[in-house]
């Protein structure tokens, strides 16, 4: 079986970094494929690549804007991202879009359909869209997405938009690698809060009710009022909280339409206001904390990979599985035995 298509061609990672920094889209795609790979030799090359690409003073990182975007299924995330990306590229900014797609936990396959849902932005020379499979693990999201953000910044992109697949645990992971987390909501005839978890409201820095167009404008405004009320219940009267621009930041709840473009400018202004509220020291502190959190995400991901590749673990699992299936051995005892095999005890 020919697997060459799934592997980036051999190339000196330092030279690849030079090409990425020079603006080569082909090199950027190859670099992202490299950092997404789970092969040991690719991981080592990816570390060299990222080190070579990163400026010593971190100037590219601080200059860029990182925005996470999430919302319930059907909220119109891709339409919104295309509208926002078009506005930003129209202002002369270069925009990178990372779409974290669901991956099959059995095969690792991913639908990866965001390029087809953003036809205008896909054809824009100042935009770069990269579907990114999560590989079925939050560690996979953290490792691949965080490092791809660094690659986009090294390639000179001013704004990085990270679109997530829905509302769930991965949203907390993505919120931990961006400056501002935008939650898109949808007016649904009184049940617009359905599907929005309390935890997601707690991490949102800006909220926008999408699809506020045509005869749904009034309904969208009513939904915005309901969400503002929910925020006061969840986060206190100031609607501030950990991870925001501080206790003085009041989370704005806006309305917009990704279809018509109405309100998109106001949403972006709110994102910039949140970033401004952080201030340079606050932004630097936030990025520093995220880098350290990423360290542990990478450690957990690497341990998971080593656990799966371990021969003693595979042998122990083969012996333990029949006992667990027959309910003659408790799951915690089997887990302890697998860990002992991994530790060599």
Automatic annotation (TrEMBL):
Q: Which Pfam families match?
A: MeaB
Q: Kindly state one GO CC term assigned in the UniProt record.
A: cytoplasm
What GO MF annotations does this protein's record show? GTP binding; GTPase activity
* SUPFAM superfamilies linked to this entry: P-loop containing nucleoside triphosphate hydrolases
Query: What superkingdom heads the lineage?
Result: Bacteria
CDD domains per the record?
MMAA-like
Q: Boundaries of each AAA+ ATPase domain copy?
A: 63-239
State the coiled-coil residue ranges. Answer: none
User: Known InterPro entries for this protein?
Assistant: AAA+_ATPase, GTPase_ArgK, P-loop_NTPase
* Protein family according to the UniProt entry: Belongs to the SIMIBI class G3E GTPase family. ArgK/MeaB subfamily.
Q: Which PANTHER family match?
A: METHYLMALONIC ACIDURIA TYPE A PROTEIN, MITOCHONDRIAL, METHYLMALONYL-COA MUTASE
NCBIfam families from the xrefs?
lao (TIGR00750), PRK09435.1 (NF006958)
Q: What is this protein called?
A: LAO/AO transport system ATPase
């Amino acid at each position: 079986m020919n697997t060459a298509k799934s592997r980036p061609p051999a190339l000196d990672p330092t030279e690849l970094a030079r090409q990425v920094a020079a603006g080569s889209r082909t090199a950027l795609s190859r670099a992202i494929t490299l950092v997404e790979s789970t092969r040991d030799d690719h991981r080592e090359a990816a570390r060299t690549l990222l080190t070579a690409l990163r400026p010593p003073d971190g100037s590219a990182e601080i200059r860029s804007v990182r925005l996470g975007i999430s919302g319930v299924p059907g909220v119109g995330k891709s339409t919104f991202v295309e509208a926002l990306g078009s506005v930003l590229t129209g202002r002369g900014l270069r925009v990178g879009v990372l779409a974290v797609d669901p991956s099959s936990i059995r095969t690792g396959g991913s639908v990866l359909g965001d390029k087809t849902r953003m036809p205008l932005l896909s054809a824009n020379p100042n935009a770069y869209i990269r579907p990114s499979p999560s590989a079925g693990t939050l560690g996979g999201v953290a490792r691949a997405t965080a490092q791809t953000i660094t690659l986009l910044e090294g390639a000179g992109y001013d704004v990085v938009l990270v679109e997530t697949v829905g509302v769930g645990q991965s949203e907390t992971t993505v919120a931990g690698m961006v400056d501002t987390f935008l939650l898109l909501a949808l007016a649904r005839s009184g049940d617009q809060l359905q599907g929005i978890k309390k935890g997601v409201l707690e991490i949102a820095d800006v909220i926008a009710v999408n699809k506020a167009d045509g005869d749904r404008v009034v309904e969208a405004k009513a939904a915005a009022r309901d969400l503002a009320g929910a925020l006061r219940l969840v986060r206190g009267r100031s609607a501030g909280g950990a991870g925001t621009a501080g206790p003085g930041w009041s989370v704005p709840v806006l309305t917009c339409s990704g279809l018509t473009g109405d309100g998109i400018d106001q949403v972006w202004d709110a994102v910039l206001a949140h970033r401004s509220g952080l201030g340079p020291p606050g932004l630097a502190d936030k990025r520093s904390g995220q880098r350290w959190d990423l360290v542990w995400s990478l450690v957990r991901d690497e341990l998971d990979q080593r656990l799966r590749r371990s021969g003693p673990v595979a042998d122990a699992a083969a012996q333990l599985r029949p006992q667990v299936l027959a309910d003659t051995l408790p799951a915690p005892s089997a887990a302890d035995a697998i860990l002992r095999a991994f530790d060599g005890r």
